[in-house]
Amino acid sequence: MSASNMTPGEIVSELDKYIVGQNRAKRAVAVALRNRWRRQQVAEPLRHEIHPKNILMIGPTGVGKTEIARRLAKLANAPFIKIEATKFTEVGYVGRDVDTIIRDLTEYSIKQTRELEMRRVRTQAEDAAEDRILDALVPPPRGASGEPERGEDNSARQTFRKRLREGKIDDLEIEIEVAQAAPQMDVMTPPGMEEMAEQLRGMFAGLARDKKKSKKMKVREAFKLIVDEEAAKRINEEDLRTVAINNVEQNGIVFLDEIDKIAARQESGGADVSRQGVQRDLLPLVEGTTVNTRYGMVRTDHILFIASGAFHLARPSDLIPELQGRFPIRVELESLTAEDFVRILGDTDASLTKQYTALLATEDVQLEFTDEGVRRLAELAYEVNETTENIGARRLYTVMEKLLDELSFDATASSNKTVKIDAAYVNAQLAEAASSQDLARYVL
């Protein structure tokens, strides 16, 4: 089920499988996604006047801001892009300008729409690929014009068709005509001219698209290649672009990470000029403007923007007032507790304990995490966060790597072995490093 058809409660339940706590942030994101669907049910011209309410997520590092975005990307059946605000520079400076956000989002939508269309025509493409491979194996009779005549399969073609479908001739080598691959050309352009580079690449690719060449390959490889080629023939590129651009304009989501890094701090100096320039450049995108892409003009009026930042050194009020006003929904994410760490390790889908258990099981080493072991692991991670730098749930990765370091290295020589990860094992591996603040700073 895609997020567009899910209720806010269902979206939150889906996020709960991977993210512990942070209910306010989950609710805000869920309502924003559901509002996309609600807006589509409203008749014009009122629908055009309903703009998305952008979200600003505030919270320390490692509490789930980026994870919410990552899970949202998988959940939302919509064009989605996550970018760091620090990657961009003011127009006129060396670096990427903010319009590339929309260009990248459009590229993603084109790719997403193309994949959907390829799946839709796949059955027809497979039938055509079968015929082309059979033509190479058992050429059909040719008419007066020299073109192959399609008719009922003769007994030889029927035999080969049956064997092809059963996979019995996958390793047989045949010679077929395939479209020539476009040359991979790296076009060098000055900063800010990325669009021109894309257009030049597209032009060179178009020159090679209609050229064909004979190639020898195995039936298995040829079938995959021809299916893709035949599917591409059945896709109307103009319609594909129209659908993809409309999807960006109506359902696009942009996740702006590290937005606090471009906020101007009162006590800092000259760098603020560039930061404010990026904010001013972002403002038209968030308010609604038209961006020229290689596929056509894209309006940003109804694209949802979700921004996030730790705001340790800056505050949301340090953003320029116009940009603050375009993020009316603000949610604060709480710091994680030791109890949260226990739930992250034990209750979430694809938790770290499940990941490491599955990894080492490939070497016939069975890990058994006890409840006491998981709790002690969570407590140590929390203690290290408190005594050194608080990096939130990311500390669990560091602690888990240190815990299983020797076991991972010696796993090949220790096959058919069961290792019980209890509190005593955790203490033996980690207690010394965790108790020494200097050691914890470098090791954990």
Report on this structure.
The chain is an alpha/beta fold and 444 residues long. The protein has three domains: 3-112 and 244-332, P-loop containing nucleotide triphosphate hydrolases (Rossmann fold, 3-Layer(aba) Sandwich); 151-234, no CATH class; 338-437, Helicase, Ruva Protein, domain 3, CATH 1.10.8. Helices cover 52% and strands 13% of the residues. It is built from 19 helices and eleven strands. The chain has helices at residues 8-16, 23-41, 46-49, 65-75, 99-120, 122-137, 155-166, 194-209, 219-233, 237-251, 271-287, 321-325, 338-346, 352-361, 371-387, 394-403, 405-409, 423-435, 437-443; strands at residues 55-58, 80-84, 173-179, 212-218, 253-257, 290-293, 296-299, 304-309, 329-332, 365-369, 417-421. The strands form four sheets. The protein has a five-stranded parallel beta sheet, sandwiched between helices. A hairpin with a 2-residue loop joins β6 and β7 (296-299). α5 packs across α10 (237-251). The longest helix is centred in the N-terminal third of the chain and has 22 residues, at 99-120. The chain is globular and about 85 Å long. The protein starts with 7 loop residues before the first helix and ends with a helix. The model has no long low-confidence stretch (mean pLDDT 84).
Average pLDDT for all residues: 84
**What structural class should be given to the helix and strand makeup?**
alpha/beta
Just give the CATH class of the largest domain.
Alpha Beta
Biggest sheet, open or closed, and with what strands and sense? 5 strands, parallel
* Number of DSSP-assigned strands: 11
The tally of domains stands at: 3
Alpha carbon gyration radius? 28 Å
Helix content: 40-55%
Subcellular location: Cytoplasm
Keywords: ATP-binding, Chaperone, Cytoplasm, Hydrolase, Nucleotide-binding, Protease
Family: Belongs to the ClpX chaperone family. HslU subfamily.
Domain AAA+ ATPase: 51-333
